[in-house]
Amino acid sequence: MTRKSVSSRRGVVWLGWKLVIAFSVSLCLLALLRIQMQYRSPVTTTLSVAAGSRDDITLRDYYYSGDRRRPKGVDEANFSVYVHSVPGFVFNEETTRSKFFYYRQLNNSIKVKWGESSMIAAERLLFASALEDHSNQRFVLLSDRCAPLYDFDYIYRYVISSPRSFVDSFLHTKETRYSVNMSSVIPEEKWRKGSQWISVIRSHAEVIVNDDIVFPVFKKFCKRAPPLGSEEAWLFFRQNRRNCIPDEHYVQTLLTMRGLESEMERRTLTYTVWNVSGSKYETQTWHPVTFTFENSGPGQIKEIKKIDHVYYETESRTEWCKADSEPVPCFIFARKFTEGAAMRLVREGLIGSSKNITL
């Protein structure tokens, strides 16, 4: 898939619900607070959102005091944090300076391996925990390499304003990740690809957690390929298994199979660079280019905020970025950021204030 951007088009949308946020440490919403408050954490998080009355939302003066560890104007009733960390790791006064993460780790976390079904198993555990709180209405996955492009107030209103999930989803025809062994459960025409970093409404989170049909297929047939030339690799491909990177396919394929694409904005809220602007090593691997202190200045961040649409080459589809049918900037998060790059966003005031933005 190729994404191309053109001139920006910023819109106006009013948001009127409360938001509860859930974080996942091996996923990506932890950074929303972690970066803004200069907290250091070895985990990934999931963000959940709770709904309230429309009278609760106003454009408030949102600013930072000298102590950046406590953001002003953030109502703690508007978010909750859930963290999937290494099994046994505990967030407390000794391991994090952020009270928002105290004891927010899952007690049933699992060991996660990149490129295997344990990635989506961890996501499902996060959603299951967040769903126990009925006030949680939006669920956002982020990792400790994600950074917010706007302050909490704007991100909250952006996400809660839309009745749809934000799930990057497109037809996948160029790579051989789909296996015919899946066909009895997953028709090839329903196979989708997209970003792992999603924001879903409550009903879609419930679909993900309650799924006992599609997930077992991914668990059985999506494995990391052994080194080429080995006996294990020969057996792997002979059995028609695929190195299918399940976190890039599972949610997209599941929601498509459930006939829910009309309830989605088929795009991600998290900007990622996959082009030749990175190092030779980065552009030849499956991992995105990393933002460093040097390439995360005002010019680069401004260009990201200008993007107002995404082009999906495999579908000849242009996705104009909207929230509640109104045009908005496409991205409110970005990744992957080094610690130095993330701190530059904070110190140079590059995380946009909501004072001059009306939704």
Automatic annotation (TrEMBL):
One of its GO terms (cellular component) is membrane. The chain crosses the membrane at residues 12-33. GO terms for molecular function: glycosyltransferase activity. It is a single-pass type II membrane protein. It is found in: Membrane. Its main location: membrane. Pfam families: Branch. InterPro entries: BC10-like, Glyco_trans_14. Keywords: Glycoprotein, Glycosyltransferase, Membrane, Transferase, Transmembrane, Transmembrane helix. It comes from the Eukaryota. PANTHER family: CORE-2/I-BRANCHING BETA-1,6-N-ACETYLGLUCOSAMINYLTRANSFERASE FAMILY PROTEIN-RELATED (PTHR31042), CORE-2_I-BRANCHING BETA-1,6-N-ACETYLGLUCOSAMINYLTRANSFERASE FAMILY PROTEIN (PTHR31042:SF75). This is Glycosyltransferase BC10-like isoform X2. It comes from Raphanus sativus (Radish).
